[in-house]
Write a structure and sequence with these properties.
- This protein is an alpha/beta fold and about 350 residues long.
- The chain contains twelve helices and twelve strands.
- A twelve-stranded mixed β-sheet has the order 3-4-2-1-5-12-11-6-7-10-8-9, sandwiched between helices.
- The chain is globular.
- The two termini are about 15 Å apart.
Length: about 350
């Protein structure tokens, strides 16, 4: 008897119940083709998901489960592990509350646990509110720091990807004036190694080609416009290259991203947030995905926020969530598919 194709089970967290998370889940899972790639299990709020389903896709069946094995995972069904059932007063669109924030964090923690226990093959996270997280008593800067702590990851990095356009950030949410202070030779070498390992394991690239962006205009122009290239970035590139990694640079950022788009590199290491995300979002505004490198579990995410101004309007675009689901499924196939084909 032929074995069934492997469909990884993915835990999809709702994000903030009062943001666009519930709506983009409903809109994304109206696409029956996603069910050929994976078994999507929503971790979220019954009130919020039911409201979004009723408004946007009443034809979808809302199926409550207490354990992942109870899911139907068929087109036309939203399998929900209802981890909260917020009072309507605590679930008003666009108004973050401590209760909604606590529920939001509970979805993430449950998703991590399911992945750690082998009940889920990957985690796909919806948009969260840092304000709501803090209101609920969880003083994390964001998803990444919470995930790193709860999984015990020693080193993590943020990669944004749209198709084959991939950008890894050396610094993330810091003031621009702090970026030069945050850069270090040792930190960059670790980032090069982490990126190389992740692209080999989860993307099937046998020898990833990494292009490194300069911090300063014209790559510092020999020190005229800054010395970070000469003192930090070049020594780190040389050390990594000497250990066998295909790392080159630093190159002026105003030409490097064009070269990446032409296929010269498999990923770019950007020195700061907007340097990397402006070109990425110019090309992939509707389908960019956030991937956390270095975790022991698979985690992808939408590359946008809660969009409180759009919550409840039904106009939020589900493209980033659909891309995040498909990418997590692809990564799960690489990690688990060979040993679990036929397992559902």
């Amino acid at each position: 008897m032929p074995r069934k194709p492997f469909r990884p089970l993915l835990a999809l967290t709702m994000g903030d119940p009062v943001g666009v998370g519930p709506e983009i889940l409903v809109l994304a899972l109206r696409d029956a083709s996603l069910y050929a790639d994976c078994r999507p299990l929503i971790l979220g709020d019954l009130t919020a998901l039911g409201r979004a389903r009723d408004a946007l896709a009443p034809e979808l069946d809302l199926h409550l489960v207490e354990h992942p094995r109870e899911g139907r995972y068929t087109p036309g069904t939203l399998d929900l592990m209802a981890l909260s059932h917020l009072d309507p007063e605590e679930c008003r669109y666009g108004l973050p509350t401590p209760a909604a924030g606590a529920a939001m964090v509970s979805y993430i923690l449950t998703g991590i646990r399911l992945c750690q226990e082998g009940e889920a093959h990957g985690l796909v996270t919806g948009p969260i509110s840092k304000m709501a997280m803090h209101l609920a008593g969880f003083p994390y800067p964001g998803h990444t720091e919470l995930l790193a702590e709860k999984t015990g990851a020693a080193e993590v990095a943020m990669m944004l990807t749209g198709g084959n356009f991939r950008v890894v950030l050396a610094t993330i949410h810091v003031a621009l004036a702090e970026v030069p202070v945050r850069l270090s030779h040792e930190g960059l070498v670790r980032l090069f190694r982490l990126t190389d390992a992740a692209l080999r394991r989860d993307f099937g690239l046998p020898r990833p080609r990494l292009g490194v962006a300069a911090l300063n205009p014209h790559a510092g122009e020999g020190g005229l416009f800054g010395t970070e290239e000469r003192e930090i970035i070049i020594p780190a590139v040389l050390e990594a290259h000497g250990t066998g990694l295909d790392v080159t640079g630093p190159f002026p950022a105003d030409t490097l991203f064009w070269r990446h788009a032409q296929g010269e590199f498999d990923a770019i290491i950007a020195m700061y947030h907007d340097q990397g995300l402006i070109p990425l979002k110019l090309l992939h505004f509707m389908d960019a995905v956030n991937v956390t490198l270095g975790l022991p579990i698979i985690r992808t995410s939408v590359d946008h926020g809660t969009a409180y101004n759009l919550a409840g309007t039904g106009t939020a675009h589900p493209g980033s969530l659909k891309a995040a689901i498909r990418l997590a499924a692809h990564m799960a196939h690489r990690r688990f598919g060979a040993g679990e084909s036929g397992a559902e």
